[in-house]
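Worked problem 6 (solution included).
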Amino acid sequence: MNILIVDAQGGGIGRQLVTALRQNIPEGVITAVGTNSAATAAMLKAGANNAATGENAVVVNSRRADVIIGPIGIVIADSMYGEITPKMAAAVGQSSAKKILIPINHCDNIVVGVSEFNISRLLQEVVEEVRKIA
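Solution. The predicted structure is:
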């Protein structure tokens, strides 16, 4: 299974995702794409198989993924303080991959009707969803 993790800013959520998936789904091939080099480096250090940075990397790898995982902002143009470009959001949104979006209420994007879990609980739920797909 080809798993694409997209993250921005410092890559903290992406780093934690890579670690959790590596521990629980070791057969998954994880590609980490950061919107900047700090995010990419954090995910690569956590154990991603492949890593790349920037808009074109999101576009290309969204076509190849079976599953795309990241904060909900990866499908909202100009989110994450402007790090998600319209092309990135469109590439993720239009991908035929299953998308597992983490409901982070940040940067003026609020998801109502979703419980306010801590990040550890949200990551556990991500791992369970990937297991269902695998």
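Discussion: The helical segments are 12-24, 37-45, 55-64, 79-82, 86-94, 119-133.
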